Amino acid sequence: MPHHRSVPSARRSLPRRAALPAAAAAAVCLTVWTGTGFPSPSGGDSGAVPWLGALTGQATDAVAEPASPADPDEVLTRRLAALPKPAKASVSVAVIDLKDGREADYGVAPGKAGAGGTYDTASIVKVDILAALLLRAQDEHRALTTEEKSRAAKMIKVSDNESTNALWRAIGTGDGLDAANKRLGLTGTTAGSGPLWGLTQSTAADQIALLSSVFGDGVSSPLTAASRAYIRELMGGIAADQDWGVSAAGSVTGLKNGWLSRSATGLWDVNSIGRIEENGHSYLLAVLSRGNVSMKAGISLVEKAATTAVSASREWA
Q1: CA geometry: angle at 140 spanning 168 and 127, to 5°?
Q2: Among residues 216, 213, 258, 217, which one has the least CA distance to residue 238?
Q3: Is the separation of the CB atoms in 291 and 205 below 8 Å?
């Protein structure tokens, strides 16, 4: 699959200073220095003043106070809050840097910055459906059938809905998906009712939990190594015309997008989840959006949010 373009402590206490006599001596020295007309040693560079240490008998090596690491959620919130978006559109983002385990989210729950709450999954739920299918096969101690594999490949690679309908029934529809999600650690996802798999409700944070079960190294997952490898293989072979979304933020190694026009409003849900490589780091990234005036506008918003999230991660360290 063609790759998209790339885009981009604890405090240490200062040593205790001199007691009153030495401090007084230092004050006299500073007064004399100032009286000579020379610039004060405290002006300009704020480092140690060697001659002052010699006169007072105190060590004067400056002890730098390293800046506290930036809070990932705060950085992501600040960056995404400044992102222009249409009045009716909202976005939810979650990202984890697999290199150091740091993660951040935005708009994933009521009370947090952004729209909050859950979003329609549209076709990104197809990864979840595949995971549920594989869990069912594992429980039955069998491999997927030839027909299941054919449908799974079409469902993920070209987002074929007829194949999805068949596999949705195979996993037991919504009840089957909800049962699988309990095992996968998705706590904020509710399956769509009846045949409406695309109206499954989820959060960006839950999508990261799903991706972690597939792509996370050293992560405890109910999926076997073979099942994980199979999902990775299919997500790594998305059709070229669907190579958009989080893949705008780096070189993509796993991708699934979803889009849905809501008949009641005419507005679009546009979502993207996946794994990317950028600047020596591996990221799991989920961007969900709703209220877009068109699919094109939704793709633009999702890609801007994805690149902003990856860029924001550079401030975490």
Answers
A1: 35
A2: 258
A3: no
Residue 95, strand partner residues = 104, 285
Residue 261 in this model has a pLDDT that exceeds 90? yes
Whole-angstrom CA distances from 60 to 15, 50, 238 are: 9, 7, 61
pLDDT at 85 over 60: yes
Instruction: Supply 278's token pair.
Output: 């950028």
pTM (two decimals) = 0.77
Per-residue model confidence as pLDDT tens digits over 173-197: 999 999 999 999 999 999 999 999 9
Listed residue (227, 223, 222, 245) closest to 93, CA to CA: 245
156 alpha carbon, distance to own chain's centre: 21
Q: Which amino acid is at 257?
A: N
The two three-digit tokens of residue 15, written as one number: 């040593």
3-state SS track over the chain? CCCCCCCCCCCCCCCCCCCHHHHHHHHHHHHHHHHCCCCCCCCCCCCCCHHHHHHHCCCCCCCCCCCCCCCHHHHHHHHHHCCCCCCCCEEEEEEEECCCCCEEEECCCCCCCCCCCCEECHHHHHHHHHHHHHHHHHHCCCCCCHHHHHHHHHHHHCCCHHHHHHHHHHCCHHHHHHHHHHHHCCCCCECCCCCCHHHCEECHHHHHHHHHHHHCCCCCCCCCHHHHHHHHHHHCCCCHHHCCHHHHHCEEEEEEEEEEECCCCCCEEEEEEEEEEECCEEEEEEEEEEEECCHHHHHHHHHHHHHHHHHHHHHCC
CA separation for the pair 269, 306 (Å, rounded): 16
Residues contacting residue 55 through CB under 8 Å, at least 6 positions apart: 25, 26, 29
- Give the span between the Cα atoms of 227 and 207, in whole angstroms: 18
- pLDDT digit string (tens) for 101-137? 899 999 865 444 344 579 999 999 999 999 999 999 9
DSSP β-ladder status, 251-261 and 268-278? antiparallel
Quote the tokens at residue 233.
């293989």
